[in-house]
Write a structure and sequence with these properties.
The complex is a heterotrimer.
Chain A: E1 3-6, H1 15-21, E2 28-31, H2 42-45, E3 52-55, H3 56-61, E4 71-73, H4 75-84, E5 88-91
Parallel strand pairs in A: 1-2, 1-5, 2-3, 3-4
Chain B: E1 2-4, E2 7-9, H1 25-34, H2 41-57, H3 63-74, H4 81-87, H5 92-100
Helix pairs in contact in B: 2-3, 2-5
Chain C: E1 5-9, H1 18-31, E2 37-40, H2 62-67, E3 76-80, H3 81-86, E4 100-104, H4 107-112, E5 116-119
Parallel strand pairs in C: 1-2, 1-5, 2-3, 3-4
Classes of the chains: A alpha/beta, B mainly alpha, C alpha/beta.
């Protein structure tokens, strides 16, 4: 199933919202770069049906706390998620 | 660079016109001669069709679209790669575009 | 059967270079006989509006290029129904003469059927 990668803040871009409209059961979501700002409320208003991962370094850099429902990952885990899913869909704008 | 009737016309390193507005039939003759081609009626028919293609789509065609377009407009007999290869050897889309004064096909590798 | 790829076009045509880059990538891939399928969603559906005349802003007409897709052997494209209705548009508002446009309600299902997705 698809691995969706979101790298823009949901407050300035439709990337996350667009991603979630194409999200189906079995898909997974990875938040990277400014995409991690979704941890600050956006994901509560738009619940996701599948697992949500967040690049820990990007969240830490921005002073965000990763909630329990979201799995903090490092680069290695991100790479293995990429190999476990097909296709990989990048939402970068 | 080529010189036509005393006018210097800049070319890029592959011989395409730098300014598409520089194109004229005389320029086409010179560009063709530089490729070892003497333009005949059959060449001009394709050159004009390439220019129509560009006006319609704002693109230079790759080989297959060119063959298809020629077939649509000039019939199946001419809409074959062998026919176009005879007129513009090796790479008809690229060479034809060059002589017709079209930009280099971005999708022609 | 080869790997199937999808070009996901989400950007309006002239505000940034992505829409054009996407189209050029699709045309280049078609020259190698690897043309991806196309899905227009989000503001990408605005690429399909008829009557675009970008001369005044010094840009090439992207819609003309879209009309060329069938001759590059790209006969059809998918359009996200939800994105259309969000923007007050329907299929009837879109340009004809290019690839046949197929409305899709569940784009997630469509996306997951591909091996590769290229985002533009």
């Amino acid at each position: 199933m698809s691995l969706h990668i979101v790298s823009k803040s949901p407050f300035s871009s439709t990337a996350l919202a667009d991603c979630l409209t194409s999200f189906i059961e079995g898909d997974a979501l990875v938040l990277i770069e400014d995409g991690v700002y979704a941890l600050s409320g956006a994901l509560k208003s738009q619940p996701v049906v599948g697992p949500v991962y967040c690049l820990a370094a990007d969240a830490q850099a921005r002073g965000l706390t990763i909630p329990a429902a979201v799995e903090a990952i490092d680069d290695d885990r991100w790479a293995s998620l990429c190999t476990e899913h097909n296709p990989i869909v990048s939402w970068f704008r | 660079m080529i010189t036509i009737e005393g006018r210097d016309i800049p070319l890029d390193k592959e011989g395409f016109l730098r300014n598409l507005d520089d194109w004229s039939p005389e320029v086409a003759e010179a560009l063709a001669r530089a490729e070892g081609i003497e333009l005949t009626e059959a060449h001009w028919e394709i050159i004009h069709l390439l220019q129509d293609f560009y006006r319609e789509f704002e693109l230079s065609p790759a080989m297959r679209p060119l063959v298809k377009y020629v077939a649509q407009h000039l019939g199946a007999e001419k809409g074959r790669s062998i026919y176009l290869m005879r007129l513009f050897p090796d790479s008809p889309a690229k060479l034809g575009s060059k002589i017709a004064g079209l930009p280099k096909p971005t999708n022609c590798l | 059967m080869g790997k199937r790829s999808l070009a996901l076009c989400r950007q309006a045509p002239y505000g940034n270079a992505l829409a054009r880059e996407g189209l050029e990538a699709v045309l280049a891939a078609s020259a190698l006989e690897q043309a991806p399928d196309l899905l227009f969603s989000g503001d990408g559906v605005f690429q399909l509006l008829p009557g675009q005349e970008p001369d005044g802003i010094g840009q090439k007409n992207l819609q003309r290029n879209l009309q060329a897709l069938p001759i590059f052997d790209i006969e059809r494209a998918y359009v996200c129904e939800h994105s259309l209705s969000q923007r007050g548009l329907s299929l009837d508002d879109l340009a004809t003469g290019g690839p046949a446009l197929h409305p899709v309600s569940d784009i997630g299902k469509l996306i997951s059927s591909y091996d590769t997705v290229l985002s533009f």
